[in-house]
Design goal:
Distance between the termini: 51 Å
Helix content: 40-55%
Strand content: 5-15%
Shape: elongated
Number of strands: 2
Structural class: mainly alpha
Largest sheet: 2 strands, antiparallel
Length: 97
């Protein structure tokens, strides 16, 4: 069932503009499409040891773009260019009982 607020917005747009066309979205478009994102996810799942720097050269995108995609889309963390699948062990967590 469609939420009431959505229906209200559609009716208002119809009354004001005479159509319910989808308005263009604001903001910058993504630099990497879904197909490339799937390729990145497969590469991470294979765990072939590729660093983010190597992936950026293969995909011809910036390190920052790849870092944001990995964090946002896969939920993994990146520290010093390395993907972390598990918990990060540092000096403090090693000393904890």
């Amino acid at each position: 069932m469609t939420p009431l607020r959505t229906v209200q917005k559609i009716v208002t747009q119809w009354k004001d503009h005479g159509n319910v066309d989808v308005k263009p979205k604001s903001g910058r478009l993504r630099t990497v499409n879904t197909q490339k994102m799937r390729g990145i996810a497969k590469k991470i799942q294979r765990n072939d040891g590729a660093s983010l720097n190597e992936m950026t050269q293969e995909l011809s995108i910036s390190l920052k773009s790849l870092h944001m995609m990995v964090c946002n889309e896969t939920g993994l963390r990146v520290i010093d260019g390395q993907l972390l699948n598990g918990q990060l062990l540092n000096g403090q967590t090693k000393k904890s009982p």
